[in-house]
Amino acid sequence: MRILYMPKTKYWVKFETNMHFENNQKFAQNLDSADKLKQYKEEFIFPSNSDNVPTLYFCGNSLGLQPKGALHSLQVELTDWGKLGVEGHFHGNNPWFHYHKFLTDYSANVVGANPIEVVVMNHLTVNLHLLFATFYRPTKNRFKIIMEAGAFPSDMYAIESQALFHGLNPDEVIIEISPRDGEFTLRTEDILDTIEQNKTDTALVFFSGVQYYTGQYFDIRSITQKAHEVGAFAGFDLAHAAGNLDLKLHEWDVDFAAWCSYKYLNSGPGNVGGVFIHEKHCTNPSTPRLSGWWGHQEESRFLMKKGYIPELGAAGWQLSNAPVFGMAVHLVSLKLFETAKIENLRNKSIQLTNYLQFVLEDAKSKNLDLDFNIITPSDSNSRGAQLSLLFEKNGRAVFDHITKNNSIVDWREPNVIRIAPAPLYNSFEDVQKLGEIFASFSKI
Ligand SMILES: *Cc1c(COP(=O)(O)O)cnc(C)c1O
After folding, report:
1. By alpha-carbon position, which residue is closest to atom 2 of ligand 1?
2. What distance in Å separates the CA atoms of residue 291 and residue 317, rounded to the nearest whole number?
3. What is the DSSP letter of 249?
4. Domains of the chain, first to last
């Protein structure tokens, strides 16, 4: 058995259609031994059951696992705080005054950005509002926002409140695009057509990178291009895309994006978020924004004078001083991404997700009690590490069966199981074992 690691996604796609999978443990183990990223599994702490058997964990799209290095990194900062008090800002091992900067280059590499375009700060939804303050400034003629129907609730609420905040009626502002009848995911042509149909009054096109429910990976480049063609900005919520896909935000000319660090980026519950603002906007000091002291030009920040001078780049959108403890954990995780490299992770991920699809469909074909359809696109270019299974019946019972078998997947009302094999710490053998658990389901 030979596994080829092709450098570019398009070669993989060709490769994958010829890939012959087998649903047995030996085959999965062979794939694992050829996996150049297999050692990263050792960097993470897996939950385990009461007999100390590690859990099969497929919930990295909701909360990634804890890197083993997190505790030490956090301890360094706690120790410095204890030893140095306020002096830690300048004399700690990692001076807190600059702490956000330690994360910038790594984050930029994860999302395909130039370092000047990225800053780690606040939390995802907070950051979206800050970015809307910059990129959603409705006028009488341009005020509409185009987005996907069924977006993550925080996106829906944030956008709705933006309309209300500007004294507008959300029903007149928000245009939601839904899948066609009988379909579960959006066609890119329908997204582009909707933008075209609203070309004179659209201010903002705002999408997720990967749809949290269906797992669809939107065509960020085409959506951005079309938004620009009609004179609108294009922004993305990358909660399910950062650390999952090989993004090229700068090259794709995306205006802005934000993501969280606790899903595929494995940085712990509710940890800090990341922000991208394209160079053409963030290096312009007159780009409007909501300001705070930490975004002030660094050299003169502590002169504490009236009159805001922004730090150049996305750093000029910071409000508050860096939350070091959260960032210390995020830093450990980002370093793993730096060495593994996002393009390698994506290559493995394509194959891992394809294998998951293969073993699940195999289980389904042999077990009449398994009545689901995978609503995530089957084309690797239109999905990341997640498969969403829509159940006709027995969905909840299947979920309970999986949970009883020491495995963690995710249940979404009313009838969807989401499974996300994370290429940093999931193996082909994990996937094959999960397939066996599915296969062993029986309706009582
Ligand atoms: C997870 C997720 C969020 C969470 O937002 P927080 O502000 O981090 O709580 C927001 N948007 C999307 C699309 C998500 O998947």
Report:
1. 239
2. 6
3. T
4. 2-64+344-439 (3.90.1150.10), 74-340 (3.40.640.10)
Neighbours of 225 (CB within 10 A): 15
Which residues have CB under 8 Å from 81's CB, separation 6+? 88, 92
- Ligand 1: distance of its center to the CA of 250 in Å? 22
- Residues counted in the chain: 444
Q: Which of 124, 237, 386 is the pocket-test mutation for ligand 1 (most atoms within 8 Å of CB)?
A: 124
d(CA 114, ligand 1 centre) in Å: 24
The end-to-end CA distance of the chain, in Å, is: 40
24 C-alpha to center of ligand 1: Å?
Answer: 36
Is the whole-model pTM more than 0.90?
Answer: yes
Site to probe by mutation for ligand 1, drawn from 245, 260, 386 as the one with most ligand atoms within 8 Å of Cβ, is 260
Three-state DSSP state, 15: helix
pLDDT tens, per residue, the chain with 444 residues? 334 444 434 334 334 545 799 999 999 999 999 999 999 999 999 999 999 999 999 999 999 999 999 999 999 999 999 999 999 999 999 999 999 999 999 999 999 999 999 999 999 999 999 999 999 999 999 999 999 999 999 999 999 999 999 999 999 999 999 999 999 999 999 999 999 999 999 999 999 999 999 999 999 999 999 999 999 999 999 999 999 999 999 999 999 999 999 999 999 999 999 999 999 999 999 999 999 999 999 998 888 889 999 999 999 999 999 999 999 999 999 999 999 999 999 999 999 999 999 999 999 999 999 999 999 999 999 999 999 999 999 999 999 999 999 999 999 999 999 999 999 999 999 999 999 999 999 987
Who lines ligand 1 at CB under 6 A?
123-125, 152, 154-155, 208, 212, 237, 239-240, 260
Distance CA 192, CA 313 (A): 30
